[in-house]
Amino acid sequence: MIPVAEFKQFTEQQPAFKVLKPWWDVLAEYLTVAMLMIGVFGCTLQVTQDKIICLPSHEPRENLSEAPCQQLLPRGISEPMGDLRELSGLKNNLDLQQYSFINQLCYETALHWYAKYFPYLVVIHTLIFMVCTSFWFKFPGTSSKIEHFISILGKCFDSPWTTRALSEVSGENHKGPAATTAGRATVTVTTTAGPGKAGEGEKEKVLPEPEKVVTEPPAVTLLDKKEGEQAKALFEKVKKFRVHVEEGDILYTMYIRQTVLKVCKFLAILVYNLVYVGKISFLVACRVETSEVTGYASFCCNHTKAHLFSKLAFCYISFVCVYGITCLYTLYWLFHRPLKEYSFRSVREETGMGDIPDVKNDFAFMLHLIDQYDSLYSKRFAVFLSEVSESRLKQLNLNHEWTAEKLRQKLQRNARGRLELALCMLPGLPDTVFELSEVEALRLEAIGDITFPPGLSQLVHLQELSLLHSPARLPFSSQIFLRDRLKVIRIKCEELREVPLWVFGLRGLEELHLEGLFPPELARAATLESLRELKQLKVLSLRSNAGKVPASVTDVAGHLQRLSLHNDGARLLALNSLKKLAALRELELVACGLERIPHAVFSLGALQELDLRDNHLRSIEEILSFQHCRKLLTLRLWHNQIAYVPEHVRKLRGLEQLYLSHNKLETLPTQLGMCSSLRLLDVSHNGLHSLPAELGLLQNLQHLALSYNALEFLPDELFFCRKLRTLLLGYNHLSQLAPQVGALRALSRLELKGNRLEALPEELGNCGGLKKSGLLVEDTLYDGLPAELLAMDT
């Protein structure tokens, strides 16, 4: 006897898999269990009690009909008992062994195969049904996805963040009706439906109260740090799982195939069972050639379990019919609805999370199955598909991690003296930032999409904002707040078209610094948003690959004082727009691929500083035209390829600072001594072999940089520059220093590193401003210091 427990493994699945079993699969499981019980019961009877009892027929052979037992069917019931008593006395002259032999022989030859093997067929067919039903739970290509989905689904359902997110939405939805209730006070009590009441959502009970309104919002659980991290990991798992599962439809295809197979199997079983069920009969005629052994060739046999097997067969056929109807309904459900697409429209309307995306393929199919079990699962799972929900979670984790006290510890003064808070590489902007009302400058670098909340209005002292690779959205209310308060803004992004439009509406802005590239197709046009609203803009800095000066710069021509264009080596071709900048005081054209000084520069009558570093200047003959820039004080021509300075430099009598370092100069013109206002001259990192004596005429010179040249001596006239405070002579070929250096009484810093000096003049002690710390003699051949200088050391 086979115990039923042996078949339990065929129907037993992991308890979690039940969520993927709709009602028809559950009904089919119960039907298969019932059919299996019929088969096991029939097999038990077949093995232990099934047999036939045969008696020889005494009819003469010539009178023997085609069915020896047929005459017993009608007459056996209608004839009186007396006739049967007369027949009971017939002698067959057969012993027990002959009867046993006849019984076994007739069982094998005369009994129909359906009557013999019916219970076994029931068991086999039922096992096939079981395999078809659970095959997709076992097949490697589908079971892995199902197990992963069930695992994620359970965690999403039980996550505290799911409850919190839905409770917050519930509170927002209930806030409106509570606020609009007028005329009488109410008490609103909100309860949340449990998992067993899918789709019921939240219920409200409104109770009248005579005097006051007490609104009790939904209970919102507080997430600790561990729960927040777990929810964050769940969001990542759901994203990856969605990408993986939406690529194919193997689950959908496998479910269809196994359902079609069950329908085909059902039709085959139904047909042959209806055809052969009549073969199970109580009387069986048996003809066997056993005359030589028993003396008889015709027997009439009684199948003892035929009546019971017939009833079991009809019962089995009934179960098969019901099973087949469920399979046909399953096919109808599969092909009648678009199961490879799933819409969260109802969830979006109920929860208010409008960004929950629709899904497709296997992901959609599993969600359709989940809805047949409990639609609450899909609702709670959808929370982890919403980017809004994810951003809320990130914000909550950020607020836990970055408290106001921790942020205050990061406050420090920046180069402009403003109290600055700098945050870098955070997943978002903590709300606690807006509790620091003392912040004057906010620097955000490599932070994801930022949406400034209304709490921005708490930063009443904010004047400077830096957004470095941190795209930001600003609500209209916050734009109104910053429009007249913000003075300095820095934007750095991959492309300039990513610069938010609200930047160009800040009327009180004084400095605008933009860094990013124009797309290749727009680089030549270099179109920038209108600057007309920036009525107080004084400083504009643009680091990009522009082909020309943006035309919108002329919108601020009347009040722009400083313009910086850094082109990172891209050639700047059109500079005519510069002519309109009449109020410009400082101009930087850095790494713009310039080979000549632009003529548009000479039209800037108010220009005071010009920086042309990192270009390709070889000749500066146009320097004569700088005489039209009567206010020019600083000229920076460093990091170019200038080979000589023209004699016209003498025209720049008002020039105070001249930077010519990192060029290819070998000599300096004598006319340079006629720049009487020159206070700083930097010609380091060149190839100078000598200096003109006329440099001694520069009586206002305070800083002279001659490092990294090939000077072997200094002209004595150089020491007539009595106001010289800094003299840098490092890494030349000097072998001695003239005693006249003692005449430089104001000298406070002298660099002699990397020369060939063997001695220092004692007259250095006369340099009243020079201390030991201001004298740099490393890498020379001299080790000591003059005693006079040592005596001056404090």
UniProtKB/TrEMBL annotation:
Catalyzed reactions = chloride(in) = chloride(out); taurine(out) = taurine(in); iodide(out) = iodide(in); 2',3'-cGAMP(out) = 2',3'-cGAMP(in)
Origin: domain of life = Eukaryota
What range(s) does the LRRC8 pannexin-like TM region domain occupy?
1-331
Q: Which InterPro entries match?
A: Leu-rich_rpt (IPR001611), Leu-rich_rpt_typical-subtyp (IPR003591), LRR_dom_sf (IPR032675), LRR_domain-containing (IPR050216), LRRC8_Pannexin-like (IPR021040)
Q: Which GO terms describe its cellular component?
A: endoplasmic reticulum membrane; lysosomal membrane; plasma membrane
Q: Name one Pfam family in it.
A: Pannexin_like
Q: Which subcellular locations apply to this protein?
A: Cell membrane; Endoplasmic reticulum membrane; Lysosome membrane
Q: Which residues form the signal peptide?
A: none
- How is this protein named in the record? Volume-regulated anion channel subunit LRRC8E
Q: What is the lineage of its organism?
A: Eukaryota, Metazoa, Chordata, Craniata, Vertebrata
